[in-house]
Design brief:
Blueprint lengths: L5 E10 L6 E11 L4 E5 L6 H8 L7 E6 L2 E5 L7 H8 E4 L11 H11 L4 H14 L15 H13 L5 E5 L7 H18 L2 E5 L11 E6 L2 E6 L6
Parallel strand pairs: 3-8, 3-9, 6-7, 7-8
Antiparallel strand pairs: 1-2, 1-4, 4-5, 9-10
Bound molecules: adenosine-5'-triphosphate (ATP) and magnesium ion.
């Protein structure tokens, strides 16, 4: 059996019912291989956030199939009752703002999710230290988030997204507030991490600075996806 990082087939999402119903997703088809980073681009209202929320098990699709890693998670209905565990163990989120917890130091911001997932504290902190080293922010491990620069905070947020080694990372405009050099730095990190940990990554973006870095891009228009080859510029 072929293993898919992310596979979405015929996904539909209707908000509401009757005359006021909105078909936000009509026919979404997408695959992202383990270790691959793809872009998701589309105009406002095209369904990008709706798609990430479905994939992240935050809202329930109306129909279709979704596979994460080797597990079919949705087949016209959720295949598991425990969506919290699904979100915690299988999906890492990176947002435009880092949303770090202000009263925890950098290490504990990264170690928190593995601890909540039941990992012994010492092991969770050790894993956090490794990720912080890989993302070149070890020197800030004992600092509070407010003492970090914007780019450092975003790297910590990426470390946190990777902490449970999820097969999937969903990033919504992760580089929007960063300058060109730092935006490309974040993309380099996401690509390195994808390769190293075999993570499948979707990046929703409008950011012209990073669009040339994708090898594959999915466009979404009016709730339907189509694929295009990207430039795949070396980072
Ligand atoms: N909770 C909701 N109830 C009803 N309609 C919704 C809801 N959320 C989104 N929609 C509609 O679904 C469609 C897709 O919205 P979505 O937020 O997914 O777009 P988007 O591509 O993320 O847009 P943007 O780039 O502006 O963030 C839009 O027509 C929107 O009005
Ligand atoms: Mg949106």
């Amino acid at each position: 059996m072929q293993e898919f990082g992310i596979r979405i087939e015929g996904l539909r999402k209707r908000y509401g019912e009757g005359d006021t119903a909105v078909d936000a997703l009509k026919d979404v088809n997408m695959t992202v291989a383990p270790g691959e980073v793809v872009g998701l681009i589309g105009p406002s209202g095209s369904g990008k956030s709706t798609l990430l929320k479905c994939l992240g098990a935050v809202i329930e699709p109306t129909a279709g199939r979704m596979t994460l890693g080797d597990e079919l998670i949705f087949d016209n209905a959720w295949k598991t009752r425990d969506l919290r565990a699904l979100r915690r163990d299988r999906i890492g989120f990176v947002f435009q703002a880092p949303y770090l917890i202000p009263f925890l130091d950098v290490t504990d911001n990264v170690a928190l999710l593995p601890m909540l997932a039941g990992k012994p504290n010492a092991l969770a902190r050790q894993r956090a230290a490794e990720l912080l080293a890989a993302l070149d922010v070890s020197h800030r491990a004992a600092a509070r988030p407010s003492q970090l620069s914007g780019g450092e905070q975003q790297r910590v947020a990426i470390a946190r997204a990777l902490a449970n080694q999820p097969p999937v990372i969903l990033a919504d405009e992760p580089t929007a507030p960063l300058d060109s050099e730092r935006a490309l730095g974040v993309m380099r990190i996401l690509n390195d991490m994808a390769r190293q940990y075999r993570t499948a990554i979707i990046v929703v973006t409008h950011d012209e600075k990073i669009i040339p870095t994708f090898k594959r891009i999915y466009h979404i228009r009016d709730g339907c996806t189509f694929e295009e080859a990207g430039e795949g510029r070396t980072l």
